[in-house]
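Posting this for the archive.
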Amino acid sequence: MGFSTVLLLIIIILLGIFSFLMLALNKSLVHLDLLFLELDIQLGYVILSAILLGILIAIFLEVIFFSAKRKNKDE
């Protein structure tokens, strides 16, 4: 196994541990009042979903940026 593979496995394991720690905060409820919807969600789920949504948005924007950068090199 290469160094990058080991590093990726360590990062995935740490992310999993961090996720379980965030879900341990489920004792307190958060009241979300969206436009037409009111939700009572546990705090761990709110934090975990916000972090995962941020990661997905960052990856999506990086893919767009690097694909546009690659198109400019081809021209």
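The longest strand covers residues 29-33. Residues 3-74 form one domain.
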